[in-house]
Structure formats: structure tokens, C-alpha cells
Amino acid sequence: MMKCPVCNGKTVGRVGQGQFYCWNCFVEYQLCGDVTKIFSVAEDGSLIDYEPLAIS
Ligand SMILES: [Zn+2]
């Protein structure tokens, strides 16, 4: 079971090969080997680099 790397929650859905989406904090993340890349989803659906400082 995948856990969200941001909130550590389990409200995670798979959206593609190695791609997951957290319904709690609205981020998408991708597993790239040992690295997890985290993106925010913009209003137009595009992915932007997740900025940890934006989350208090
Ligand atoms: Zn989350």
C-alpha cells in the first residue's frame, strides 16, 4: 500500500505507471527508482514542481 510522501496518508490513488495521486493534499507523485518526485497539479491540469514551503 502506497503512502503519500507528503502527508503520509493512505488516500492515494494510482493514476498511471508508477504515478500516484493523493486526494488529501492534492499532489501527484512519481516513483523514479529510489527517488520520489512530487508535483502539484495546477488548475489547468499541468504538473508543477511541488514546493514544500507552500504547505504549513
Ligand atoms: Zn498527501
Molecular structure report:
The chain contains no helices and 5 strands. It has a 5-stranded antiparallel β-sheet, with no helix packed on it. 0% of the residues lie in helices and 45% in strands. The relative contact order is 0.21. By secondary structure, it is mainly β. The chain binds zinc ion. Residues 4, 6-7, 9, 22, 24-25 line the site of zinc ion.
Short description:
It is built from no helices and 5 strands.
Helices and strands in order:
Layout: E1 12-16, E2 19-22, E3 27-32, E4 35-41, E5 47-49
Antiparallel strand pairs: 1-2, 2-3, 3-4, 4-5
Bound molecules: zinc ion (ZN).
Zinc ion binds next to loops.
The major pleated sheet works out as: 5 strands, antiparallel
Q: What Rg, in angstroms, do the CA atoms define?
A: 11 Å
Shape verdict: globular
Mean pLDDT: 88
Helix content: under 10%
Distance between the termini: 26 Å
Bound molecules: zinc ion
Given as residue ranges, the uncertain stretches (5+ residues, pLDDT < 50) are none
List keywords for this structure.
56 residues; mainly beta; five-stranded antiparallel beta sheet; globular; binds zinc ion
